[in-house]
Design a protein that fits this description.
2 domains, alpha/beta, Hypothetical Protein Yjia, Chain: A,domain 2
Length: 330
């Protein structure tokens, strides 16, 4: 089994990229997702994608495979490699995971049945400067340890803006191959090399950490609501407008699937923008009693204010709502 790690900060578009990868590849692919929140959302997106068909999805939530869940992560990879008859395993670490730590863990378990491919990091061009300044060590680690870099969210940018960003990325990682276009416009040869280029097994690049002592990086908090619902679509759309304007805290990322009256809405929030998709009413509403969830990632999350807009069934089950504050300690 060949293993490809798809890295990138919160909201960079990792799940969308994996859907495109699966669509373009004739081999069988399994996906291992590590969700930062206490419940998973993106696994259902891949499972239910008409473009990707049937994909084996493995999910690990409420923890980070690069630090607190290293042991569980390596055990899971070995289990998948020995029980799933897939050509490839695509690993999607949480957006706040250190790519160097993921690589280090994988290097320990390489054997004849496992081949590690060169990792790829997606870079959200619109958020590059802001996230590099706020989450410097983590953000640069993801870029520095990638063999391939692909830029997202820059479809409307000028050619000069794209060239400038590529120049900045080359300063951070001179050896990485940077996709010069949006990945959906890349030719077949670019996609094929992602699944055949073996990684150099060695120490991950961590110059930033070794150069000077680093202070603790305050990672975003997460707030997850299972069995979530709203009464109608219109108030929820107004809620999303207020959310991206900071009324409910500094929300970096939010996503979920919730019933809204007679329909079900799948929503996604990243970098001050949101999208909403109407799910098939005949199937989605019936399934959302089990799959309905809303996840918020950010700083200073206004939990009580959000609960006044998004409700929960069986609210007495307090264990279903989890709020965690994480500090990246190294």
């Amino acid at each position: 089994m060949k293993i490809l790690v798809i890295s990138g900060f919160l909201g960079a578009g990792k799940t969308t990229f994996i859907r495109e990868l699966v669509r373009r590849n004739a081999g069988e692919i399994a996906v291992f997702e590590n969700e930062y929140g206490s419940v998973g959302v993106d696994g259902d997106v891949l499972k239910n994608s008409a473009e990707t068909g049937q994909v084996n999805i493995w999910e690990m939530a409420e923890g980070c495979i690069c630090c607190s869940m290293k042991g569980d992560f390596t055990a899971s990879v070995l289990t998948i490699a020995n029980t799933v008859d897939s050509d490839y395993l695509v690993i999607e670490p949480t957006g706040v995971g250190m790519l160097s730590n993921v690589i280090e863990s994988l290097n320990r378990i390489t054997y004849e049945r496992i081949q590690i491919l060169k990792p790829l990091t997606l870079v959200d061009g619109l958020s590059f400067q802001r996230y590099r300044a706020k989450y410097t060590e983590l953000y640069l680690d993801q870029i520095r340890n990638a063999s391939y870099l692909a830029i997202t969210k820059m479809e409307q940018a000028s050619a000069e803006e794209v060239r400038h960003l590529i120049g900045e990325l080359r300063k951070i990682n001179p050896s990485a191959e940077i996709c010069p276009t949006h990945y959906k416009d890349a030719d077949d040869a670019w996609w094929e090399q992602l699944l055949r280029s073996a990684a150099d097994v060695g120490e991950p690049k961590s110059e930033l950490r070794s150069a000077t002592p680093q202070t603790e990086t305050q990672l975003p908090d997460t707030f997850s609501m299972e069995k979530a619902y709203v009464g109608a679509p219109e108030p929820f759309l107004l809620f999303l407008e207020a959310l991206i304007r900071g009324r409910y805290g500094n929300i970096i990322r939010a996503k979920g699937l919730i019933p809204a009256g007679a329909c079900a809405l799948r929503f996604d929030v990243a970098d001050g923008r949101y999208s909403v998709r109407l799910e098939d009413p005949d199937s989605a509403v019936q399934e959302t009693d089990q799959n309905a969830v809303a996840v918020f990632i950010g700083h200073g999350i206004a939990k009580q204010a959000i609960r006044r807009v998004i409700h929960q069934k069986n609210i007495a089950q307090r264990g279903k709502i989890r709020f965690t504050a994480a500090v990246n300690q190294r």
